[in-house]
Target: Annexin
Amino acid sequence: MSSLKVPASVPDPYEDAEQLKKAFKGWGTNEDLIIQILAHRNAAQRKLIRDSYAAAYGEDLLKDLDSELTSDFQRVVLLWTLSPAERDAYLVNEATKRLTASNWVIMETACTRSSDDLFKARQAYHARYKKSLEEDVAYHTSGDFRKLLVPLITAFRYEGDEVNMTLARKEANILHEKISDKAYNDEEIIRIISTRSKAQLSATFNHYNDHHGHEIIKDLEADDDDEYLKLLRAAIECLKTPEKYFEKVLRLAIKRLGTDEWDLTRVVATRAEVDMERIKEEYHRRNSVTLDHAIAADTSGDYEKMLLALIGHGDA
Amino acid sequence: MSSLKVPASVPDPYEDAEQLKKAFKGWGTNEDLIIQILAHRNAAQRKLIRDSYAAAYGEDLLKDLDSELTSDFQRVVLLWTLSPAERDAYLVNEATKRLTASNWVIMETACTRSSDDLFKARQAYHARYKKSLEEDVAYHTSGDFRKLLVPLITAFRYEGDEVNMTLARKEANILHEKISDKAYNDEEIIRIISTRSKAQLSATFNHYNDHHGHEIIKDLEADDDDEYLKLLRAAIECLKTPEKYFEKVLRLAIKRLGTDEWDLTRVVATRAEVDMERIKEEYHRRNSVTLDHAIAADTSGDYEKMLLALIGHGDA
Model:
């Protein structure tokens, strides 16, 4: 369900590296060439290009991209060019910094990555920041947010299909009881949400829906001023139907007065190679306009071209 | 610092497998032969023997050992023959079962393994139990024990030597303040203990000692009837000086009226290939008798022989 378009015949990575080097040379930068190459290579291919670039020129491609490009285009190219694990580590690190703090980015990363990918992000965090991802998340959060985010980000969920229906019934009842009592920060809610496999949670949420009259998400819509409650609801949405969660982030980012490029860039860069096709379907269904059209109407220039290339608009 | 004695020339694993098969045949089992082989092979070699045994006889060596052996000898041979990751997964699973429940085993596993080894145990748990290690730990614990054990068992600590001295001072002061208030279950204590690297914690505990007049361990000796407090203290001991923690577990296991084979077996099987030489030094220093002598005086038969072989008594 990747939206990436990779050409049938991909050039040798040394050739790609050479073209990129050329794109940086002389008066101005050749942004079209950068898009033509990087937006049409998968993660393994981008890694080879970075390695070839370092071997051929003794320089770091990311540093050169950083110094040659600017603004939103720079951010999307840099995020995209990073490996998925480095990118997640970078985003979470950013989300623990004062000026770019975001409990939402931490939650989104924790709840929408596969168990292996989330663990690889923790390994990449060690390598890049010389500390653990969870120590930064724990240090920079507090209260209920910390209680929820630390177990989410340190989870290594089982990913098999096995479901224990007795347990699903039992835990659906626990969730219903705590939610009825408005005990949204109860440790049992957090335990269930943060440790159970996605298949098990799906069974639990289905039981909740069937036996308690509403979807769990609806029952959590009590109070929209409660930031913790909104985050908990979004975590459940991410675990249950990530494409719906991402559709909503994109919708709100685009509909705002002045697009929220921060969210738009992050969602496109992190989902293009994962489930962007499903997110596009969901977006079209919900907004009666394609994501391609919405992005084209709201962005411009190289930034627009890069986003459209990543979501699979046009040919490789 | 492994106490294991591996012969200079190790037989082909198929040959070892064949010898083990012979040891099971006929009237009675040849326990000496089992010890002679398994107690003198490292983890990688034992893995090859299991693979060769399965390939040659279509049977699982562990199942055959299980049916051929009995009692304490059976348990030590089985635990030892498992790979370290499978063994940790097995021990933690056992520790979440009602009849063999043990917060101590969970804490000990969480705090004395390297980050990679702890993660491998979580992977092995998925493979063997079709669920995550943390979901069982969280489900089978509650209250303060859960608050402490879940972050400990899900940690992936940074393992570099880098230390932030400013942070060490700051967090030593936080620890001192909370301990002075007897707020032993405070979320800040748990955050620091469960997320910081062992090098960072060492600097923090040194600052605590230098500036607050006592070792942190001493300040936690307030109330020996408080099971949570004892567990917290032991967790700090495990993170700080694991050989002292294990020396104490062995000392208490041996000194009891009737040896505690459960603890003795676990410590020998899990530490022989890791830091048993340091534990033996510590034991000798503290008890004025060698661990070899203490074990020989308190155990007997094949169980005794196996334990002594694993702690490096006699030749390979």
Summary: Chain B has a mean pLDDT of 95. Residues 25 and 193 of chain B are 51 Å apart (CA to CA). Residues 13-69 of chain B form a domain with the Annexin V; domain 1 fold (CATH 1.10.220.10).
